[in-house]
Amino acid sequence: MKVPIQPGSTLGVMGGGQLGRMFVHAAQSLGYFTAVLDPDPVSPAGRVAHYHIATAYLDEAGLAQLMQRSHAITTEFENVPAPALRTLGAHRPVAPSADAVAVCQDRAAEKSHFMQCGVPCALHAVLDSDADVERVPASLLPGILKTARLGYDGKGQVNVPDRQALQAAWNVLGRVPCILEQRLALHREVSVIIARDALGHSVSLPVQQNLHRDGILAVTQVPAPDLDPALADQALDAARRIAEAMRYVGVLCVEFFVLADGRLVANEMAPRPHNSGHYSIDACDVSQFELQVRTLAGLPLVQPRLHSAAVMINLLGDLWFDGAGHQREPDWSAVLRLPGSHLHLYGKADPRRGRKMGHLTVTAADAAHARAVAIEAAAVLGLPAF
Ligand code: ATP
Ligand code: MG
Prior knowledge:
Blueprint lengths: L9 E5 L3 H12 L3 E5 L13 E3 L6 H10 L2 E4 L6 H8 L8 H8 L1 H10 L7 E4 L2 H5 L8 E5 L9 E4 L2 H10 L5 E5 L3 E11 L5 E3 L3 E6 L2 E7 L6 H17 L4 E10 L4 E7 L9 H4 L4 H10 L11 E8 L15 H5 L4 E5 L10 E9 L2 H15 L5
Parallel strand pairs: 1-2, 1-4, 2-3
Antiparallel strand pairs: 5-8, 6-7, 6-8, 9-10, 9-11, 9-13, 11-12, 12-15, 13-14, 15-17, 16-17
Helix pairs in contact: 1-10, 3-4, 4-5
Bound molecules: adenosine-5'-triphosphate and magnesium ion.
């Protein structure tokens, strides 16, 4: 394949969620055609792509069609089966690679990768059997039991206050392979989005600060308020080492905890753009989705510049219900009246509680103004301040 893959070619994506949709938007604005493979006939990305192949991820005919259409292929969620990416990778440039995605799909592999890179992570144990459960050292409790695979938005996680609760928690999660990790006292959470090309050049977005509610990202602030620059450098450097060691090509997000004692600990990573980087569409001169297009097509990477302070608020399906549980449309006019507000809705027809329906980014000349307007927007939507 000739590099770069020129505009006018077709870029394919495995997965049709909101991340795929924003990838498609970025690819189209650079003049590419786009193809999406997702079983859902009305997926957010499928609805805006030039071609939508509505088959299962492992469907051979579907994969063949995606290859036929696409000059290069990426993925938008880490639960795309690695074998599907391997099949595609045998015939087309695929970024990130199946091997890199496989590491990110498994919390045990992910944590050993962090440790190999010299990046600290939470003390943990891999649980695969009753014997493993009995053998858990007391130092891991109280802890959080997480399924090794297929977790997202806090799903597949159970709090484990003590040893007695552990066996029950493992049963609740279906006795599948799990990670028990020590519950850490979090001072704050931050993440880093890095893009790396095939020649090993990498660029990154500024460190962003994330607030989670009920295990789901609720608010991202950039710049991270009062973050020690040395800690920010440490996070950027750790993300670079993590990407480098996988010879990663594409966009990678690494989530970190900052502990009360100031230590930085890696939580997990995602082999794709990330919810905490959505602000980059409106606040940076190159978004995380454009970085994904550039790495996939082999176009030059340039260091993104944050031109505005930003606060991103996730819009979950809960906002579509009033106090009595009746469905309603949030008051978009009230939100759009606020200066610097950028509304992104993903075109999902069916609002459900906890479902990511869209996000709102507020940009401003400085962080104080962005935060003030974002808090106003939150109030208008009925969300708590932060
Ligand atoms: P997502 O895919 O949305 O990032 P996830 O379901 O993969 O989330 P994690 O990132 O592992 O889950 O955990 C979700 C949140 O739960 C974290 O952002 C953090 O707030 C909290 N959490 C997870 N692990 C720990 C821990 N060891 N100690 C304290 N809090 C934790
Ligand atoms: Mg997470």
